[in-house]
């Protein structure tokens, strides 16, 4: 190697709050030698912060980990506490949880599909440009997102960080009329979601496939959203969530403070919309299934760029499911079940918009949290994202840095990485030597 | 003129909470014509928060390299936020993007003022720094004055 040339391409990427994460691509003689995704901010602070707090506080504290998916954190923590106590909110108590979660899916998927991912495919630099060229699309997105917010406000008591969720159920439950009032908007949202599927299915997708083990919760006969007792994989794994750490190992990697989750003895895996769809697509609502079939969506999506279509199909499902839940809603007699503390270890998992979110808590007999462990979806996907980027950059090594950077960002966005719970990338560096 | 004051930030991230601290200082003391809101989530929700208001005052932490506690007041209705205050660019929607999105869509309040308070530390779990806490008081006063003389 006679000459070493290093070019650094910088981009502010995901940063509401500061962080120093980034992505580094190393190339030698046109060949990719290394791709490193540095993720600096797993929820370790919260795990420490939870120690010594009462088990009933976990939903409110963990909800603050993420501004986009507070419901996921609330649900996984409630489930963990309830499983330890041997209590299971069922019937309408559970239906309301599923409804709240649908609100979060609507909001999060809309934001990602329209505001973050679609501009990549359309060659636009941002949602602001999309608003200039196609204001009607952004208006549609804003209305969809607002409807997700409304569901969260009515069921959760507040749009961001719902305050109505508690271990055992709810502080108060909505009336039938309050939920009925959401119906006209949700019917509009259902139609808008179907249009979204048609819209994104018409985008141009790079020719790129990855074969990775897909993992999702199994919710026993329904599309997994707000709970799931087992985890299943595309290669035959099937285990109860309380065996999570028998099957998942968190490995320290040199270039990151974060831990990379891999399946023990098997390697990287992927959680999220493509995994849910591949493993449970037949459980989508009829409308959601039809929306996918109408645009020729493959049964197992292996091209991560096509995840945008799966997200849109899940958007249809969330709207359809919300309408179904509202139609069969009867206010439960009691807003919550009594949950008494007990010493031991509890596990809970739900399907955040971006994939499985696992919580584990060890409690003292007075209900004090002795130890908390939180594994967000982005930590689980991180290794697969790196593998993807490695293959993708190899395929596109000839592109100029700037275009390569944009393509890599698009590839990272395929996984809708958590903003505040797992990643704060600021820079992408391409080293060519 | 209807007016809202929106504090943006995250309570558990040191000086990122400064916008929320200002909002809480003002909540309850302003009369019914001014609505005080907190925005902890992603900034696109700002568009919904100020919908229907003629005038919005947004307070957020900044991270531009200036001295901690530095206060900037920007008339966002007149033009984009300076690049040094825009903490996101390519796609993630920060406040600057939310403002531009609103401008393009005709959803920006007629008068939109952004107060930026330079933070010292944004580490998870840290307390509000002294310079940021002092600046929060000054911003709250400035907003009281601004609203006192409202047109």
Q: Would you tell me the structural class of the helices and strands of chain B?
A: alpha/beta
Mean pLDDT of chain B: 86
CATH superfamily (homologous) name of the largest domain in chain A: Cytochrome-c3 Hydrogenase, chain B
Number of helices of chain A: 14
**What is the number of beta strands of chain B?**
5
Number of E-state strands of chain A = 14
Q: Looking at CATH, which topology of the largest domain in chain A would you report?
A: Cytochrome-c3 Hydrogenase, chain B
CATH architecture of chain B: 3-Layer(aba) Sandwich
Nearest-integer average pLDDT of chain A: 88
How many domains of chain B, as an integer? 1
The fold-level CATH name of chain B is Rossmann fold
CATH superfamily annotation of chain B: HybD-like
Structure description:
The complex is a heterodimer of chains A (433) and B (151). Chain A is built from 14 helices and 14 strands. Chain A has 433 residues and is an alpha+beta fold. Chain A has two domains: 21-42 and 387-432, no CATH class; 44-381, Cytochrome-c3 Hydrogenase, chain B (Orthogonal Bundle), CATH 1.10.645. In chain A, the strands form five sheets. In chain A, strands 7-6-5-10 form a four-stranded mixed beta sheet. In chain A, strands 2-1-14 form a three-stranded mixed beta sheet, covered by helices on one side. In chain A, α3 runs antiparallel to α4, α6 (135-156) packs across α8 and α8 runs antiparallel to α12 (307-327). Chain A is globular and about 65 Å long. In chain B, α1 (18-26) packs across α4. In chain B, β1 (3-8), α1 (18-26) and β2 form a beta-alpha-beta unit. The N and C termini of chain B lie close together (7 Å). Chain B has a five-stranded mixed beta sheet with strand order 2-1-3-5-4. Chain B has helices at residues 18-26, 45-49, 95-104, 130-148; strands at residues 3-8, 34-39, 55-62, 71-75, 111-118. Chain B is 28% helix and 22% strand. Chain B has one domain (3-128): Rossmann fold (3-Layer(aba) Sandwich). By secondary structure, chain B is of the alpha/beta class. The longest helix of chain B is centred in the last third of the chain and has 19 residues, at 130-148. Chain B is globular. The A-B interface holds A 11-18, 41, 45-46, 48-49, 64, 67-68, 70, 111, 115-116, 119-120, 125-128, 131-132, 135, 138-139, 142, 145-146, 149, 159-161, 406, 409, 413, 419-420 and B 10-13, 16, 39-45, 47-48, 63, 86-94, 97, 100-101, 104-105, 122, 124-125.
């Amino acid at each position: 190697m006679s000459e070493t040339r290093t070019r650094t391409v910088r981009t502010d990427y995901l940063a509401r709050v500061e962080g120093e994460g980034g992505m580094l691509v190393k190339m030698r003689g046109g060949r990719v030698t290394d791709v490193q995704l540095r993720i600096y901010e797993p929820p370790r602070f919260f795990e420490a912060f939870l120690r010594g707090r009462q088990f009933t506080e976990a939903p409110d504290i963990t909800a603050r980990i993420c501004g986009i998916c507070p419901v996921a954190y609330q649900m996984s923590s409630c489930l963990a506490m309830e499983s330890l106590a041997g209590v299971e909110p069922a019937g309408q108590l559970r239906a309301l949880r599923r409804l709240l979660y649908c609100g979060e899916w609507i909001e999060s998927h809309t934001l990602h599909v329209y505001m973050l991912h679609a501009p990549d495919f359309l060659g636009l630099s941002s949602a602001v440009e999309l608003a200039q060229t196609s204001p009607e699309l952004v208006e549609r997105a804003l209305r969809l997102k607002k409807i997700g917010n409304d569901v969260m406000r009515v069921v959760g008591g507040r749009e961001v960080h719902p305050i109505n969720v508690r271990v055992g159920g709810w502080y108060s439950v909505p009336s039938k009329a309050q939920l009925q009032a959401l119906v006209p908007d949700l019917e509009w949202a259902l139609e808008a979601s179907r249009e979204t599927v048609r819209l994104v299915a018409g985008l141009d997708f790079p020719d790129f496939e990855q074969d990775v083990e897909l993992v999702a919760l199994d919710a026993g006969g329904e599309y997994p959203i707000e709970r799931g007792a087992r985890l299943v994989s595309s290669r035959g794994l099937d285990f109860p969530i309380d065996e999570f750490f028998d099957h998942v190992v968190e490995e320290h990697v040199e270039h990151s403070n974060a831990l990379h989750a891999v399946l023990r003895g098997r390697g990287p895996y992927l959680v999220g919309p493509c995994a849910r769809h591949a493993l449970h697509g037949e459980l989508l609502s009829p409308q959601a299934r039809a929306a996918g079939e109408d645009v020729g969506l493959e049964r197992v999506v292996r091209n991560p760029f096509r995840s945008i279509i799966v997200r849109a199909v899940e958007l249809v499902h969330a709207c359809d499911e919300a309408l179904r839940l509202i139609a069969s809603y009867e206010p439960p007699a009691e807003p919550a079940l009594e949950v008494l503390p007990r010493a031991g270890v509890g596990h809970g998992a739900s399907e955040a918009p971006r994939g499985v979110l696992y919580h584990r808590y060890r409690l003292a007999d007075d209900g004090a949290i002795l130890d908390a462990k939180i594994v967000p979806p982005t930590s689980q996907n991180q290794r697969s994202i790196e593998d993807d980027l490695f293959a993708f950059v190899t395929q596109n090594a000839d592109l100029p840095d700037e275009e390569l950077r944009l393509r890599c960002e698009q590839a990272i966005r395929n996984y809708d990485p958590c903003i505040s719970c797992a990643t704060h990338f600021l820079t992408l560096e391409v080293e060519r030597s | 003129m209807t007016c809202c004051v929106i504090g943006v930030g995250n309570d558990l991230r040191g000086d990122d909470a400064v916008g929320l601290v200002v909002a809480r200082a003002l909540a309850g003391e302003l009369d019914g014509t001014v609505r005080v809101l907190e925005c902890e989530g992603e900034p696109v929700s700002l568009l919904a928060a100020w919908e229907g208001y003629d005038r919005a005052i947004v307070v957020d932490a900044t991270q531009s390299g200036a001295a901690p506690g530095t206060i900037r007041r920007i008339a966002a209705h007149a033009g984009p936020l300076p690049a040094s205050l825009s903490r996101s660019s390519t796609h993630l929607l920060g406040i600057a993007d939310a403002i531009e999105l609103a401008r393009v869509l005709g959803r920006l309040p007629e008068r939109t003022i952004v107060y930026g308070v330079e933070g010292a530390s944004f580490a998870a779990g840290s307390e509000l720094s002294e310079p940021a806490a002092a600046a929060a008081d000054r911003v709250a006063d400035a907003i009281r004055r601004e609203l006192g003389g409202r047109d």
